[in-house]
């Protein structure tokens, strides 16, 4: 991933210049040091939750609990099987 080629700027607009927030600066610096495969900003939406939980269910990292007893509840293991 080339973070410097296309930095993500979601900061506040100050006149005509977009000013990066301290969090965005920290994320970019961390990305330069750690070279992650991708960076994801979470928005907390229902769609995002469905996508993340759905992926974890498909990958076996989460297990749906009894829907009658525990509606919308899942078991997440700290060390999923390989």
Give a written overview of the molecule.
Mean pLDDT is 80; it is low at 1-6. 32% of the residues lie in helices and 15% in strands. Strand 1 and strand 2 (17-19) form a beta hairpin. It has two helices and four strands; from the N terminus they run E-E-H-H-E-E. The protein is elongated. The chain has a domain at 46-76. With 82 residues, it is of the alpha+beta class. The two termini are 26 Å apart.
List the main descriptive attributes of the protein structure presented here.
82 residues, alpha+beta, two-stranded antiparallel ribbon, 2 helices, 4 strands, 15% strand, elongated, disordered N terminus
Overall number of strands = 4
Biggest β-sheet: count, sense, barrel?
A: 2 strands, antiparallel
Q: Point out poorly predicted stretches.
A: 1-6
- Report strand order across the widest sheet: 1-2
Helix-strand category: alpha+beta
Care to give the gist of this entry?
The protein is α+β, with helices and mostly antiparallel strands. It has helices at about 20-35, 45-60; strands spanning about 10-15, 15-20, 60-65, 75.
